Amino acid sequence: MASNANSGTHEEVDAAEPNPESALDTARHQLERAAAELDLDSNTVERLKHPTRVQRVSVPLERDDGTVEVLTGYRAQHNSVLGPYKGGMRYHPEVTEEECIGLAMWMTWKCAVMDLPLGGAKGGIVVNPKDLSIAEKERLTRRFSKELRDIVGPNRDIPAPDMGTDPQTMAWFMDAYSVQEGETTPGVVTGKPPEIGGSYGREEAPGRSVAIITREACDYYDFDLDDTTVAVQGFGSVGANAARLLDEWGATIVAISDVNGAVYDPDGLPVQEIPSHDEEPEAVTRDADDLLTNDELLALDVDVLIPAAIGNVITGANASDIRADLVIEGANGPTTFAADAILERRDVAVIPDILANAGGVTVSYFEWLQDINRRKWSLERVNEELETEMVRAWNDVREEYERRDVSWRTAAYVVGLSRVAEAIEYRGLWP
Ligand code: NAD
What we know:
Elements: H1 23-37, H2 42-48, E1 53-62, E2 68-79, E3 85-92, H3 97-113, E4 119-126, H4 134-147, E5 157-161, H5 167-181, H6 205-220, E6 229-233, H7 237-248, E7 252-258, E8 261-264, H8 283-286, H9 294-298, E9 304-307, E10 326-328, H10 337-345, E11 349-351, H11 353-356, H12 359-373, H13 379-404, H14 408-427
Helix pairs in contact: 1-3, 1-14, 3-14, 4-5, 6-7, 6-12, 6-13, 12-13, 13-14
Bound molecules: nicotinamide-adenine-dinucleotide.
């Protein structure tokens, strides 16, 4: 068991979690926990607790009224031993340097669990995207691309969309980079529109991978999908795509939610017809009479619970209420450290985000391959290769889970960390 920053072992974490850990604290504890399972060189572990580089930049933005505001942006690059850095770029008022480092570390493990030749990075600008006009967002993105020019590139660091950014943002970033380089360089970012080098199936990929991992986990625990009930928190890109695929494959989706609450029908909801967040924001709850709260959704008596909205929703305070047998993490970091310990004690299997939603970065990798080879793949090929990669990663994690008698989360970290550590061993630390 990994130790908590202030309070000893995992199990001893205060259930009320008065001081939730930062993303970086959590990432370091997860690293220590997995490192304890592997007989790793302590110098390697020490190295991996720190990012290779964090670039902090000032980004001047000319507002539509002609005034100039200077915003702060970051790009944290954690580790590139396996290949170029890879990770999202978010526009959010609460972006911090520390958060970028923690999330970059998660990306290192996520790429390694999927056995991709990529490392981990994360970045963003401290800004509320809702306060920006489209023209302001474009100017900001182009200038950010200019400020990061020396450290990004198809062989260095490849950003992708994240909170507050989207395919259009990636198109502006790619165009600004290409103009400076003097050549069209689609491989500098992923998550672009397909018309300019984006991949078919990228948008649906995280939800698709959540569905594939749910199917594999149900099979492992002998749940017949036709008899499996599922509750999904968040009906956005991840939640809606996962729910619709699982529905297609025979599962019964009994509850879905948006930020305003949840709808529940024990006989199953028509998830193919209900608009997702992208199609029509908050349509899930718009015409419903009887709403459950999002907390009530988490506590439903279902076979599978998929938190796919935001982080830190299953906490020390509500983990004892979870009645699902299986939790599949669609969102990033939906389960806190304290909740993890409680669920583990209660034998609730939690399949971690770094495996379950890794379809996003996997299809980003496919996009990068298509860009550098100047050759587009069909949607069928993307989905077939994603299926193969997800099942292979599931089997790798399952083997460690069975061999080591650890949680699914630790098993996934063991798979990722051992790949990174072996690469460091061959290449050397060069201290
Ligand atoms: P989205 O914006 O498309 O949808 C989010 C959904 O969650 C919406 O239905 C929204 O109403 C709901 N929601 C928002 N706040 C909520 C709250 N406080 N309580 C309950 N529901 C709430 O987002 P998305 O792209 O589907 O991402 C969801 C999660 O998955 C995030 O944690 C994200 O980091 C993670 N993720 C996304 C991708 C991706 O490429 N989209 C990839 C990997 C992981």
